[in-house]
Specification:
It is a single chain. About 20% of the residues lie in helices and about 25% in strands. By secondary structure, the protein is an alpha+beta fold. The protein has two domains: about 140 residues, 3-Layer(aba) Sandwich (PSTPO5379-like), CATH 3.40.1640; about 100 residues, PSTPO5379-like fold, CATH 3.30.2040.10. Strand 3 and strand 4 form a beta hairpin. The chain is globular, with a radius of gyration of 17 Å.
Amino acid sequence: MIEPYSPDALRALCRSGEFTGPTAGHAPGYVQANMLIVPREAAYDFLLFCQRNPRPCPLVEVLDAGSWRPRCAPGADIRSDLPGYRVHHLGQAPEEVHDITRYWRDDLVTFLIGCSFSFEEALIHAGIALRHIDQRRNVAMYATNIPCQDAGRFKGNMVVSMRPIKAADVSRAVEITARMPHVHGAPVHIGQPHVIGIADLARPDFGDAVELMDDEVPVFWACGVTPQQVARQSALPFYISHSPGKMLVTDARTD
């Protein structure tokens, strides 16, 4: 059983390095946030990108340049209170770290973006099983051929998260998640992965693969990993993101 930490308790465990795993299923009832940190010179373009692409990039908060104190999580430090970070330099593989304090600069602007982990509690309460939580794994995420709307230097395709849903439960899952647009809302695609450019469900681009049973349908939601994929496709020289599946848990309630 997953430990139901409070948001501040989970953030403290991240800060100390005691918690380094995916945050799915933890701190139920609270909004989790993806994160992208960009230099101030790229911040306006990325803000515009989020406004034009609210499904994959529903904004929770934008911090002032140089600030690491989010209003949605009082007392938190976005430099240390996530379970994992990726530091991206153009042309290099992302560096996986557990603290970004040594990379911090006064010109960095942090964007916090709603996460689909936040609607999973509602699905579970409705009796819809989620295999990645039952198996204590990261959710499966895939790059797609679904184009986002360009904004300045930012252009690229959407990333989606996939959850196997029993065919009889799909309409209910759509209804529940559609009520929560601040954490990606309703699915963007149901069934037939090849239609959105996914060749093999067993080989996710991010996260962990989960088995699809005969009575289940793959259901795809817009994913907050989209910004880091788009930043890479747009050849942004430097940016920092959360590690996929490892979110900032905020004090905002999902309801």
